[in-house]
Structure formats: structure tokens, C-alpha cells
Please model this.
Amino acid sequence: MATEAAAHGTDAFIALVHQAWADVLGHEEFTDEDHFFQIGGNSLDAVQIMGRLGTALDRRLPVRLLLRHPTVHSLAAVLAAPEPHAPAAVLEAGA
Model:
């Protein structure tokens, strides 16, 4: 049951990220596995997308998240995880 609930939570993040990309890029001609920069995205688009997502999620999201996770699916998975913007050292120290 917990896995199913997590999957539904991730689905919501996928929908949110997909819509933000479509709004900023001005099209929906991409899949959730397409690379952001290969579908017409650029650095200014990345800033706008992360700003929109940060506003929607009420948290500060660095652009580097999109640069490191350049597909809808991978970015959504990171956003669905707790503290997605925390440095690895901080996450490891808290474990």
C-alpha cells in the first residue's frame, strides 16, 4: 500500500513538472523521458520552470536540479523526495 501511495504522489509531481515545461516551452511535443535541452529548452527556460515549480511547491528550488535531472520523470522523482535541494552531505549526516 505504501508503494502505491508513493506512486500516486510521484504521478502528481510528474503532472506538475510536465505542465510547467509545456507552459514555458510553449508546446507539449515531448515525453516524460525526453531531455530538456533536446526538446528546445534553454537556460532561461530552466530558470522560469524552476521558479514556477518553486512557487507551486512553496519552496526554493535551484536551477541545478533541472540541469542534473533533465527529464520530466527524473525531476519529478527528485521533487517528490524529501528535501530535494539539500546537498548530499546534509542528507548523509541526517541518516
About this structure: Confidence is low (pLDDT under 50) at residues 1-6, 88-95. The chain is about 65% helix and 0% strand. The radius of gyration is 13 Å. The first helix runs from residue 2 to 25.
